[in-house]
Specification:
Blueprint (H helix, E strand, L loop, with lengths): L2 E7 L6 H9 L7 E6 L18 E5 L20 E5 L9 H11 L3 E7 L13 E2 L8 E3 L1 E9 L3 H4 L6 H4 L4 H10 L5 E3 L14 H8 L5 H4 L2 H14 L5 H8 L6
Parallel strand pairs: 1-2, 1-4, 2-3, 5-9
Antiparallel strand pairs: 4-8, 5-6, 5-8, 7-9
């Protein structure tokens, strides 16, 4: 069993070392850590302390490839599992163990925040599961984010399609991954995030709110309207089945 962790340096250089240390000191440590430095004007990589350099690969890009390039890097290493992190996500010490244990029960795409969309095609969802909505048990959801944990071989399903980068450049990778896996019978889940076991959590909630609401956050710069365009396209034109839409159909109602 091996894990490769993928980190991104973009416009939050101040979180990189904290995140790297949290990843390297997992109770099940990763065999490899890849840092993708996505091009951003005026951003330089902080000095990595000597005690964190082992088995760390840094890839510098002179071009901004949005949210997608990081999902190719897991193909470059021999690992059973890949975990791709957003740069505002600081995992707790047993996050990888939590994911491995969850995989033994519910084999699927895992994340530290999960959404179940309400009926229809709008980007409107029930309360979130994960670091922003503690869940005692494994919860199936429509999409996950902030930290994606999955089997390396599943990347071929994600890259079975080529995104329209004019629309998907900085958003939509979460919907796309769950959609591609759904087509081959793989569901999306949030591992347990119990209130009394924050060591299992995939993100420190205080840090997640602090870093995730900075002005550089995609949620602050893109807006929900952009996410809604992507989601509705997947549901209406590509056949993405959300849990609540499926339930409506089973109950004899048209969800949209």
């Amino acid at each position: 069993m091996s894990i490769t962790a993928v980190l991104t340096l973009f416009k939050r250089p101040h979180t990189l070392i904290e995140q790297l240390r949290a990843v390297k000191t997992q109770s099940i440590p990763p065999e490899h850590v890849v840092i993708w430095q996505n091009a951003a004007p005026g951003i330089t990589m902080p000095e990595i302390p000597d005690d964190l350099k082992e088995n760390v690969t840094v890839i510098h890009s002179s071009k901004n490839f949005g949210v997608w390039a990081r999902f190719t890097l897991g193909l470059l290493f021999n690992s059973k599992y890949i975990c791709v992190f957003d740069d505002d996500t600081i995992p707790q010490i047993n996050w990888f163990k939590n994911c491995v244990d969850t995989m033994a029960i519910k084999r699927g795409l895992l994340g530290t925040i999960g959404l179940r969309f309400k009926e229809g095609v709008k980007y409107d969802h029930d309360p979130r599961f994960g670091w922003d909505g503690a869940n005692e048990a494994i919860e199936q959801v429509d999409i996950v984010g902030h930290a994606w944990f999955f089997e390396q071989e599943w990347l071929r399903h994600l890259w079975s399609i080529t995104p329209d980068y004019s629309l998907f450049f900085c958003a939509g990778e979460d919907i796309t991954f769950s959609y591609c896996l759904q087509k081959v019978g793989i569901n999306t889940y949030v591992p347990p995030h119990p209130n009394d076991r924050k060591d299992l959590w995939g993100s420190d909630p205080d840090k997640a709110w602090k870093y995730g609401t900075e002005l550089v956050a995609i949620s602050q710069t893109v807006g929900l309207g952009h996410f809604e365009i992507i989601l509705s396209d997947y549901i209406i034109n590509k056949g993405f089945r959300t849990m609540n839409n499926d339930r409506a159909i089973q109950e004899g109602r048209k969800p949209f």
